[in-house]
Amino acid sequence: MRVHFLGGPQMAKLQAMLRRSLPASASRFSDHSARLADFEAAGLQTAIERADIVVVELSALGDPGQRRARLAALCDAEIIALPEIRLDGLASLELEASADGAVLHGLDPLMPVLSGEDDRGVVLERFVRGEIDMQQGARLNRSLAAMRALEEQHCDLTLVGVIEALLQETPVLYGVTAPTQTVLFRCFERLCDDLGIDPDPTMCWDPVFTASLALSPGLRTFTPWDVRAHRLTYEADTHWYPKAAKLINRAWALVHSGQDHADGALSPIALYA
């Protein structure tokens, strides 16, 4: 079985789990933005053509229909499409790095306070005391709805239900696009069902392998007020306060620098470093 994984870091972790579960498989991973439909990069088209199965990541921020159609036109392989896990709102503020700069999630609800206050310290004090409505629930619901629509229209595997089942009981994200190992294991189980194979049952008990699946966390403030807003049963990040100070400083600098900013796809405002 020749399986080619196509997408971002989440897909690289799924490939690692397949290699662990099925060592004889000829699996390969190519880092390719889930937003793009251009597969003509050197070597990428040839690799796709040789695969029996292509597991591809689709993003709600791109044109998932075009990405899937273009891929189908390039190869005869079976295509299994998964949604990119991209969830805004679990943490009040988060700086997400990207190739174009960065996005500060949570800046929208913070804007009225930043614009109407002359003292940055007052903004920070109000934020850390949970006095600013960061609209966590609405933001997370909007993200889940976008992901669900993506699944219904373009994907073969659905992951929103996995996330919703785990959300209240255990951490599901290290960052907007960084699911925890628990979520990755559940996603892999779904993929194994589709491939007709059994996942290695020892993976989740291997501390070294589990640690190797950790995705890079974003700079975010996962506060006690986020825990309360989402009615979670686990605790906030122990280091949320110093991260809050950093992100409030970044937001303040942007708003008071005179730079233009525009709404992003799910609600964030672009913040270019």
Can you describe this structure?
The model is unreliable at 260-273 (pLDDT under 50). A hairpin with a 2-residue loop joins strand 7 (173-175) and strand 8 (178-179). Helix 1 (9-21) packs across helix 8 and helix 5 (120-128) crosses helix 11. The longest helix has 19 residues, at 136-154. This protein has a 4-stranded parallel β-sheet with strand order 2-1-3-4, with helices on both faces. It has 273 residues and is α/β, with parallel strands linked by helices. The protein has helices at 9-21, 44-50, 64-74, 107-116, 120-128, 136-154, 160-166, 181-195, 207-212, 224-230, 240-255, and strands spanning 2-7, 26-31, 53-58, 78-83, 93-98, 101-105, 173-175, 178-179, 219-221, 269-270.
Blueprint (SSEs and pairs):
Layout lengths: L1 E6 L1 H13 L4 E6 L12 H7 L2 E6 L5 H11 L3 E6 L9 E6 L2 E5 L1 H10 L3 H9 L7 H19 L5 H7 L6 E3 L2 E2 L1 H15 L11 H6 L6 E3 L2 H7 L9 H16 L13 E2 L3
Fill in the keyword field for this structure:
16% strand, alpha/beta, disordered C terminus, 273 residues, 4-stranded parallel sheet, single chain
